[in-house]
Amino acid sequence: xxxxxxxxxxxxxxxxxxxxxxxxxxxxxxxxxxxxxxxxxxxxxxxxxxxxxxxxxxxxxxxxxxxxxxxxxxxxxxxxxxxxxxxxxxxxxxxxxxxxxxxxxxxxxxxxxxxxxxxxxxxxxxxxxxxxxxxxxxxxxxxxxxxxxxxxxxxxxxxxxxxxxxxxxxxxxxxxxxxxxxxxxxxxxxxxxxxxxxxxxxxxxxxxxxxxxxxxxxxxxxxxxxxxxxxxxxxxxxxxxxxxxxxxxxxxxxxxxxxxxxxxxxxxxxxxxxxxxxxxxxxxxxxxxxxxxxxxxxxxxxxxxxxxxxxxxxxxxxxxxxxxxxxxxxxxxxxxxxxxxxxxxxxxxxxxxxxxxxxxxxxxxxxxxxxxxxxxxxxxxxxxxxxxxxxxxxxxxxxxxxxxxxxxxxxxxxxxxxxxxxxxxxxxxxxxxxxxxxxxxxxxxxxxxxxxxxxxxxxxxxxxxxxxxxxxxxxxxxxxxxxxxxxxxxxxxxxxxxxxxxxxxxxxxxxxxxxxxxxxxxxxxxxxxxxxxxxxxxxxxxxxxxxxxxxxxxxxxxxxxxxxxxxxxxxxxxxxxxxxxxxxxxxxxxxxxxxxxxxxxxxxxxxxxxxxxxxxxxxxxxxxxxxxxxxxxxxxxxxxxxxxxxxxxxxxxxxxxxxxxxxxxxxxxxxxxxxxxxxxxxxxxxxxxxxxxxxxxxxxxxxxxxxxxxxxxxxxxxxxxxxxxxxxxxxxxxxxxxxxxxxxxxxxxxxxxxxxxxxxxxxxxxxxxxxxxxxxxxxxxxxxxxxxxxxxxxxxxxxxxxxxxxxxxxxxxxxxxxxxxxxxxxxxxxxxxxxxxxxxxxxxxxxxxxxxxxxxxxxxxxxxxxxxxxxxxx
Length: 874
Ligand code: PEP
Ligand code: MG
What we know:
The protein is an alpha/beta fold. It is elongated, with a radius of gyration of 32 Å.
């Protein structure tokens, strides 16, 4: 099949083809060319060729270079230039471009086509010898780096030698003859390190460069980036070969990158930077600090105006915010790239809402366009204004990616990863970040750089992840070797804590207190739209009044899981809890439970009040009892003292409770079978709390959930106990109202899913506990899975962590079957999910598909679940 697609005035072959085939960059170059934007012509080699390259042991497929040859001939004709010509040579760039953008991850080669003769030709054609030799030395350097894997420093050394000879310090002060000599030096260095002369045949250069771009698809950093971003299933990268235009031809030339709207805030204002007299990657690399595009009219009013028109054309065409690269060669503007712009969650929401207002998109598109997980960023903490005002501001950098981060300093990506693995919050401090740093950037709480602009690598990557980043804080002097920074005459090291404000760019010393976010009007609007489309109800997993309230503020429509055991760890209750567990007989146990009852009742009252009018699913005690016991001799002694027994007693009872497989042991409903008095206490607390609330005009809607049921008999037996206790409590309280308390169960054991039709006879509702269901279906211990899971993921044995995203083909079958079987017994059985998966967009889509009634997730994920549920329904 066709391997090369041309774009230019003579023809544009790639328009409307698949992004998977041409990559994002290639497809958009074709698209921009077709809609009449000024794009330097060129051609794209498909991702299928990359796939074939790897499948044939890293060899270019037969016939590819013939197609490339033809495309080059067309290009030459169109531009009236010739590859390798000594009068007017054709020069091209060679760049990667996969279907999903991977900023800075892969290789680029510029000025390709220069050789000794063509450099003379370029000097003639541009009447600028200095420019021509500067381009040539850049090519030899880049080609050496990228294609031949040479160390950049050997070129730097040669450059230093020439600078010394001409007694200058800046690259730009080296005269033309110095650059001419530098090219000879570079060629010598190249030959010394590669054992071959620098290739003079432009087609040879091109062939090797294409191979190098394909090769860059599988470098460690590219693989790691795809891993972190969860990018899978791509064929490879495409290669874009495009005729060169120059931003470094003098003061009337320049190069820049821009977003058509502000990618941090979403504001509808062109947001970009440019550098005068600079080439290609200078802006992105963050080596020189660029100026804002807003200042461009002072330099060239016409180009600025044209750029603003292009913004409109592009946004009207794509109906999406674009991220563009452009170059101005001697006053003429060229578009080098456009793609959908990465943005923060805040910006995504604002842009979606604004574009609906501007009639660029409709409501449904707006709902579909905001990645549900990115809402996390809107829910991020910021610094408390009071703490902020009092903060010790060290300096101000660029507000590259919003948020608030506090942590100790880490000077390398490895150190950041290490510290974060140990559970420490760190700020990764770098002069500038490079793609090799992605893992450390991912691990850090925030990123701080001393050079680079708003579109530098650090800024782009951090924004994509919603990670706080301050870039270009030039006042900071970083000594990575000594692991110290100096700023304003003060020194900070690895043990010092700093705070970063990604929204203002400020760097502060010490830990500045953070606060919960306030949600903007656009957020509420988007949520309202989402609520119109979704059919799944969204509940929350909460076990305190504070969490319940937060979840309700985020839009939770009830509690899907209140884990009662969390309540027993607080304050003095743990003592009573331990006394209960350590009791030798029922009488002592009941005495201890009696003390726990008022605590439980109060907890429930608080939660019912917070969820006034909404259902609250309370789960009876679930974990193995030994989890509550002290494990060290020291703490056993303490507990013994509190309980007035011998330490040996505590230890003995602890041993008696020991289990080999506690998660498969004496827990869940099994506890209620052997110690029904625990169930009785909990049910009494629930009922009393509901009655007390009613007296205060609070509408409590408790639902009692029995965990870890595997057989219908278990549920039948325990349901009877719950019903009896409800009745007894009502009578004891002389209550004659009507408390409608549903009694249901969790489906978290495979057998429960398989026999759900029988279990449903005794259940008013089901809630899939997919944490345990995943554990028991895979046979992976929830608590120990990290001993092997990283290997499973890196070896592609598992695509994703099944505890994070529901394994739809395996565990999902049990969910679907359990739901269907349950409803075959009770047509209107209410079915939900309350495992961690309830907050994961992919899992939510599955729950929607199989017809669940609700998902329940942690409070902070409630908005994400609302949006994901809407997206699943659309
Ligand atoms: C579950 O197993 O999915 C569940 C929600 O219960 P827990 O995580 O408390 O075991
Ligand atoms: Mg469970």
